[in-house]
Amino acid sequence: MNTARLLRIQPWLHHGRRLWLSLALVIYLLLACYQLGLPGLHYDEAREAGLNAMELLTGAPVSAFRNVTFSFFGLRLPLMVQDYIGALNVYLVMPVLWVSGIGVPNLRMVAVLTGLVTLIVVERTVTAWYAILNPNPTATDHIALSLPGLIAITLLVAAPGFVFWSRQGIFVTNLTQPLVFWCLWQGLDWLRTGRRWALIMSAFAGGCALYAKLIALWIVGPFVLLTGGWWLWRQWRPAQKPPTPVLSWSLLLAVVLVFSIPLTPLLFFNWQSGGIRRAVAGNVFTSYYGVDNWALAANLGVRSRQVVQTLQGSHLWYLGGLYSNPFAPWFALVAVSFGLWRWRTLLVGPLLLLLAAFVCSLFTISDLFITHYALLQPLLMAVIALALIAAIYPRHTQAAMPQRQLPLVLITFVLLWVSADLNATLRYHGALTRSGGLADHSDAGYHLAYYLRYHGLGAPLALDWGLDAPVRYLSEGAVTPIELFGYNSPTAPDPDFSQRLDLFLGNPNNVYLLHTPTATVFHGRREQFFNQVQQAGLQPHLENTFTQRDGTPLIELWRVLPP
Fold first, then answer.
1. How many domains does the chain have?
2. Residue 245 confidence class, pLDDT cut points 50, 70, 90
């Protein structure tokens, strides 16, 4: 293609990119916003955003994590919602709840919009990755320049994992996604152009990502090392293009300072409570949920299967069914293999970053939750998109496929992938309509909150995890459960549990919330409750049971009465 013809079609390429991007974003919004009130409100959604936001808006006492707050004009502002999760979501949802009221769809709309921003930033990041290896693009390169980013987001917009994780984005802290990719985008822009401001913004975004959730270190840490290594390598090969960016001591100082600013609340929280230090030090060998961090082979097996499940979308059982895109893992393997064969230089950096993040995921202070891969899924799709471009538009054009075959191969590949994803996502929506969500995601929690509120049961005693925060948020603070079960261990009650329980058993007006045996999360408390009631010569009375839509009992409300 000659230069004159390229200049004539460039406006059409620009408009085509905007149309493709807009269409992809609209598809995502349609899929993510449909029946946004389902599944039921998960504990983490309420605890990590909605509850504190509701308290601040209504003037209720703020239940800050570890009771660490920052006072500002009489307000007690929470700094963290978990030892390793910052309170950014709390402040993001507050304006929405202030305008629209306390509810589940409006809480989730913030997470959906976070996913929308993620798609935009991913497109820019992947485009920057491609551009950095094309300082003097050929005509073919000009055509292909916008394709990697567009392909990456196209592979995400209908993916079951991305759609449903974004709907409940607070549950998976999807706020780390746009912040991490903002960090990558600006860092790559600095490598390509040498703009000092880009490196400073990259550092700020990286600090924000770590404050949002420390898990962002899986990507931000290796990216810093890879960027530093690339910069040093370019020092030894100064003739390469683009020119090596200048890195002065003053710039380094600015980067460290700007990176540290978003981490100030996290550091203050740790200074006040020691929570982060204890969470890490106490779970470095064996995690809170019993994962052996040194059983690398076993953890590798678990995480490898989760990568496949993330690609397929076959992990969303709690929506009421299991559906998948069975082609995705094979398509990904073929794309990466051909991409490495035809243009490995393009894939080395992104692939090393993905592999480093995967290695980091083998270690945990909680559990090997597949929801951790909400952070890695966009990076995985970015690598696959770049691999497709590497396979179809290799740098050495003499090895390229005939030009007429390029659009057909690319369109066929992407359409097959997206069609299979769309089929799975729509089937998940159908299952969700029928089920209302299962287990901790069931809409039975809505009925529980309304029952407690409108029957004047303002202080029920929660004997299991997952009941307190959703009830408080859904009742707008009218119901405040008292968590008696204790967080010391999820497998058995702590020694003081029986003493705490004895304080309440003598009052017949108290009500007790338990999960059914099959739905219990923190074990041993249910059995201890009934044993103590029997030993005290009292009679347990089941007042109400809250079920899933399929009739499966989930939550029980008990009273303890005289014999």
1. 2
2. confident
